[in-house]
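Regression test case RT-17, inverse folding.

Input:
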């Protein structure tokens, strides 16, 4: 997403144009979570930290190490993603695993902001299912 886009630019390009361009795109999005992140970027983000974070995020993602660690955890696992991200490259691998995979409607990357009620309802059902609770409501 934005992290991968950042890694193909220099710090100068990011600080002069791309950082503000990413904020504008997030503000123009139909998803409320994107608006919140754009606002937070404006208020709280050090551009040097953002570019470093982006490189580290892409490197970790491309290594498959995090996905393999997640898949290998000996506990019940839940993976939620927003409907705008239904083409994520690793979803097929998750779906054939023991991980419970659910799509949150009307949401993108920041699904807990875009559709908090549905996001936390799904989390609540998952926790209830694996906690032995007879009450499945959140």
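Golden output:
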């Amino acid at each position: 997403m934005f992290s991968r886009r950042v890694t193909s630019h220099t710090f100068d390009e990011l600080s002069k144009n791309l950082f503000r361009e990413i904020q504008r795109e997030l503000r123009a999005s139909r998803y409320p979570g994107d608006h919140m992140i754009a606002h937070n970027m404006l208020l709280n983000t050090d551009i040097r930290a953002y570019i470093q974070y982006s490189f580290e995020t892409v490197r970790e993602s491309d290594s498959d190490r995090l996905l393999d660690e997640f898949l290998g955890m000996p506990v019940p696992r839940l993976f939620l993603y927003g409907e705008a991200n239904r083409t994520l490259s690793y979803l097929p691998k998750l779906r054939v695993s023991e991980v419970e995979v659910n799509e949150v409607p009307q949401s993108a990357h920041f699904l807990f902001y875009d559709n908090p009620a549905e996001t936390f309802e799904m989390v609540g059902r998952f926790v209830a299912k694996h906690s032995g609770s007879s009450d499945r409501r959140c």
